[in-house]
Amino acid sequence: MVAKGKDSATLQGFVRYHVESDTTVYTDEAFAYQGMMDMEHHTVNHSVGEYVNNSF
């Protein structure tokens, strides 16, 4: 599946539509994903070479 845009409303709506409400979501630190307070959300920081974060 591919989201039709990369703005906050589109990406967050895509995630909410395709995952169950009790799902833990892992994304990068893109601004568009900030504010997903209604689900557990963790990030990785690609800008420092992080692609896996085992601290969760």
The span between the termini is 26 Å
Give the percentage of residues in beta strands. 15-25%
- Are there runs of 5+ residues with pLDDT below 50, and where? none
Report the order of strands and helices.
HEE
Basic shape: globular
The total of beta strands comes to 2
Subunit organisation of the chains? single chain
What is the residue-averaged pLDDT?
Answer: 92
What structural class do the secondary elements suggest? alpha+beta
Helix count equals 1
Q: What is the C-alpha radius of gyration, as a whole number of Å?
A: 11 Å
Major sheet description: 2 strands, parallel
The helical percent reads 10-25%
Strand order of the largest sheet: 1-2
Q: What is the topology?
A:
Elements: H1 8-18, E1 24-28, E2 40-44
Parallel strand pairs: 1-2
Give an overview in words.
The chain has a two-stranded parallel sheet with strand order 1-2. The chain has one helix spanning 8-18, and strands at 24-28, 40-44. The mean pLDDT is 92. It is built from 1 helix and 2 strands; from the N terminus they run H-E-E. By secondary structure, it is an alpha+beta fold. It is globular. It has a domain at 25-56.
